[in-house]
Design a protein that fits this description.
With 85 residues, the chain is an alpha+beta fold. Helix content is 24%, strand content 41%. It has one domain.
Length: 85
């Protein structure tokens, strides 16, 4: 699950059912979804084993999730740059 199987770009990879992000000296495992009006994101830092989960309702919920995860980690995550642009 944590081993990259498919490369998206220099910072993003796919494992088995989970995204892998390598940025600013950190490695994160992540998953997100869209469920009946809710936008969900989970981000786990592999070394510290800290996990943050966010759910926001509405069409722009993923933008809210990006802001919350950036505030929690201090990093602008490449996964959001790739898919929210």
């Amino acid at each position: 699950m944590q081993s990259p199987l498919s490369r998206v770009n220099s910072a993003l990879f796919w494992g088995l059912g989970i995204g892998i992000e390598q940025t600013q000296g950190h490695e994160y495992l992540w998953q997100w979804g869209d469920h009946e009006g809710w936008k969900d994101s989970v981000l786990a830092e592999t070394i510290t084993r800290s996990v943050t989960g966010v759910s926001a309702n509405g069409r722009n919920g993923m933008h809210v999730n990006e802001r919350v995860l950036r505030a929690c980690t201090g990093i602008h995550h490449p996964k959001f740059r790739r898919w929210l642009a």
